[in-house]
């Protein structure tokens, strides 16, 4: 496939926002102390990330003004389901931000906070499910049609959001005396959680890369044409100047570029943030915020590359009809 | 993991049967399709850079050419390619707006251009690459089996066929109801072994292809 930057941005930004919201919900459920201001800042940032992703996704549409129609086919279409879940999730986050901001900070946390947190967990999980199933349900795109796609979207989002949450939680203490002191003990389990999510995401991604490398395409030029003499060569694809079929389904970066981008994508996307978190957790807990901030900066382009690879690696069966391009 | 299926068996299913034994690769079906549909209900079909070095545009039908076998025992096979109007079309259930649909009365898979948001998901969901986004109108387009022609009672009955079928100089394209066992298309599918493309994905394409076969000298 030819990766569309709008979809790469959408899935990475929204995934990170979901992960950040999950981290805040986790802090609430663990009964830990995040001041109302800091909680509102985190949730607002999560909302902006998901909203920014939504904005990017509009650039993928030929007719963005008709996008409201996309909510109608929820019975059969995962994209339709995503189009319903995403704004509901944003509304939920926005309502939680308002509730956090308007709540009397002198009062102890209410049971309602647990409801907000549990709803956020459910919303984020549902959105990951819908987004990943958009790709995983296409049975003939064999690179995507596997539960690893679901795992990749969920774990990568948890990792990106978790790393960002650690940077924020630690950062608050540096700028705000009400925040946790640098190296505060309660941030440590969340740094460990972000580390585990990052490692799990890396394992899932390595497993999908390994699976992709071993995939045997079920369709062949013979099954695509029904001509069974061998060898079978294509003389012409029927036109000279290209078409939607040659533009949409071929990344045209070359097989070598696909191999070359793999390690920078995994290195920046997963290895670098994991190493920085390990360093912060074991050697320099005082500098955890700075290290996690650096991890966010390195991980973001890494995950863009990883998502680009996710799309570029998918070999669409229609490409068999365009041997000269393939 | 698979998309939700719209698996239904219809009483009537219009389709094309392509005779690979007869097709000479003249592209008359391609140009007549473009001519009819760019002027009809499905048009206009984009033409980008039409007089430049690299023209590109929307077509519902393409003819490709393959060479099979090793020299000197090679065969040139011209291979027309358009939407196969699958009985279980994977492009329909994925459409988020309902713009893509399969007609219950005759099995034709169509796009409602006023509902299409141009998200291209249906094109991703078609293993055959039968759908093309029109770059000017930014909506998904595809073969309509000339739905604005085959029911037109102002045309003589012999002309109520898709433009490609009417244009084919060798009669390589047959059109009819593949659910009617007595139709010409059902008969040739039975007698000549009309086959499906990519049967491995179980889309049940309605269009069939007739394999090449030795014909010998005419009496």
- Secondary structure tally: strands of chain B: 11
Distance from first to last alpha carbon of chain B: 55 Å
Q: What are the secondary-structure elements of chain B, in order, as H or E?
A: EHEEEEHEEHEEHHEHE
Number of strands of chain A: 1
Q: What descriptors fit this protein?
A:
heterodimer; A: 326 residues; 10 helices; B: 219 residues; alpha+beta; three-stranded mixed beta sheet; two-stranded antiparallel sheet; 6 helices; 17% helix; globular; disordered N terminus
What does this structure look like?
The complex is a heterodimer of chains A (326) and B (219). Chain A is an all-alpha fold and 326 residues long. Helix content of chain A is 67%, strand content 2%. Chain A has helices spanning 5-29, 36-58, 78-102, 111-136, 147-175, 187-214, 221-225, 244-248, 255-282, 288-312; one strand spanning 232-236. In chain A, α9 (255-282) packs antiparallel against α10 (288-312). Chain B is globular. With 219 residues, chain B is an alpha+beta fold. Classes of the chains: A mainly alpha (326), B alpha+beta (219). β1 of chain A pairs antiparallel with β4 (61-68) of chain B.
Quick synopsis:
Chain A is an all-alpha fold.
Topology of helices and strands:
The complex is a heterodimer of chains A (326) and B (219).
Chain A lengths: L4 H25 L6 H23 L19 H25 L8 H26 L10 H29 L11 H28 L6 H5 L6 E5 L7 H5 L6 H28 L5 H25 L14
Chain B lengths: L13 E6 L8 H12 L7 E2 L7 E2 L3 E8 L6 E8 L8 H4 L5 E3 L6 E3 L9 H4 L7 E3 L4 E3 L5 H4 L12 H5 L5 E5 L6 H9 L15 E3 L9
Parallel strand pairs in B: 1-11
Antiparallel strand pairs in B: 1-10, 2-3, 4-5, 6-7, 8-9
